[in-house]
Amino acid sequence: MVQITVPDLGDGIDRVEVAFWHKNVGERVLQDEDVVELVTDKASFNVPAPAGGIIKNIYVKEGQEVPIGAILADIE
User: Fold this and answer.
1) Helix or strand run (H / E) with residue 44
2) What does the pLDDT read at residue 66?
3) Do residues 27 and 33 touch, judged by C-beta distance below 8 A?
4) What is the pLDDT of residues 8-46, one digit of tens each?
5) What pTM did the predictor assign?
6) Residues near 9 by Cβ (< 8 Å), separated by ≥ 6?
7) What angle do CA 48, 50, 55 make, to 5 degrees?
8) How many domains does the chain have?
9) Domain containing 8 — which CATH number?
10) Cβ-based burial of 73 (10 A; exposed 0-12, middle 13-18, buried ≥19)
């Protein structure tokens, strides 16, 4: 199982909001394919899948705010 986590964004950013999931539980994802869009007060960006597989769990809903390093989802 591979985890998708919130990357360290530097610049004193310690929290992000999950804006949009590009994939749902049960869907196949390719390595480096965009999985989730995150937003800060400065910018928005996509997080790519660290590995290919099936999205098994999504832990954070759209609109929720989480800290840097939080686990967003699992890929199996």
Assistant:
1) strand 44-48
2) 97
3) no
4) 888 788 999 999 999 999 999 999 999 999 999 888 999
5) 0.91
6) 16, 40, 68
7) 85
8) 1
9) 2.40.50.100
10) buried
